Amino acid sequence: MGYRRDGFVTVRGMLTAAEVALIREAIEKDASFHSDDTTIRLADDSGGATRLNLWSNPGNGTLGMLTRSRRVVSSMRTLLGGEVLHYHSKTLIKEPHAGGKWNWHQDYGYWYKDYFLLPKLATVYFAIDKQTAENGALAVLNGSHELGRIDHWTKGDQQGADLERVALARARYAELQLELAPGDAVFFDSLLLHTSPGNFSPLRRMAFASAFTVVDNEQFRRTGIQYIPCWKVDEVDDALLIANGLSIEDAASKVMLGAQVGKAAAAKQWTNTGDEPPTAMEDTAMN
């Protein structure tokens, strides 16, 4: 299938127009997504910034009904080859004319440093606004997941894959800009190289994403500021998203990552936070 070969698969129209409108309303009306305490802003190298909110517990709200829906969870079981845990969900927003480029990276470039032993992780990414090259649509290197994990380094407020290997990969694999309509979804492997340009258009780019791993691949260290707990998934029927209507849960219920911790975690700035992750011996001694 395309996912195994390409490292991703696009599902056009996975959400109906009514479902997109409900998800958009839930994001726009959630106070925790507009709070300085829980909104992570990551600067790019051109003076722009992207903003995101990230949380562990999918919960019972509108966004949780999508994350826990049968269409998402069953797809993740198929792609990852077994029962799954929810790692985190997040909003990804590039405001008009705000820039907000993401460096070329693999998600496992981040998550390897968060102590996942295996790259058995995947993300489902939903376009809530229309996504084009002009407003910062996702771009991927088709098939690049076969490279395995590439070293990642801190670049500004983000991680970025080793630039020499990125250049070689771009010469080998086709670069595809994934222009998406609202309601389209992309499932992609944690080893797929991807990026997105800044938004210099008058149109906002809003996305919602949920990441999953298999049940026997939780982090082998569960300490330090970078620890985001995995969460058991109680699957629900797809119809509950609309049937339950608008429901917004607070930051504590969602187990949200704080803004300053999230920014440090994105850049892997352990030594700058005074919270160096423990050595394996220290971690064992604590348990």
Write the topology of this structure:
Blueprint: H1 2-6, E1 8-11, H2 17-29, E2 40-43, E3 49-55, H3 62-67, H4 70-80, E4 84-94, E5 102-105, H5 107-111, E6 121-127, E7 139-141, E8 152-155, E9 158-161, H6 163-172, E10 175-177, E11 185-189, E12 194-196, E13 205-214, E14 231-232, H7 240-243, H8 251-254, H9 259-267, H10 270-273, H11 280-286
Antiparallel strand pairs: 1-11, 2-3, 3-4, 4-13, 4-14, 5-12, 6-11, 6-13, 7-10, 7-12, 8-9
**Main sheet characteristics:** 8 strands, antiparallel
Number of helices: 11
Distance, first to last CA: 43 Å
Low-confidence stretches: 271-287
* Cα radius of gyration in angstroms: 18 Å
Total beta strands: 14
Order of helices and strands: HEHEEHHEEHEEEEHEEEEEHHHHH
Report the portion of residues in β strands: 15-25%
Mean pLDDT over the full residue set? 92
Give the class from helix and strand content and strand pairing.
alpha+beta
What is the helix fraction of residues, given as a range? 25-40%
Shape: globular
Overview of this protein structure:
The protein has helices spanning 2-6, 17-29, 62-67, 70-80, 107-111, 163-172, 240-243, 251-254, 259-267, 270-273, 280-286; strands at 8-11, 40-43, 49-55, 84-94, 102-105, 121-127, 139-141, 152-155, 158-161, 175-177, 185-189, 194-196, 205-214, 231-232. It is globular. Mean pLDDT is 92; it is low at 271-287. It is built from 11 helices and 14 strands. It is α+β, with helices and mostly antiparallel strands. Helices cover 27% and strands 25% of the residues.
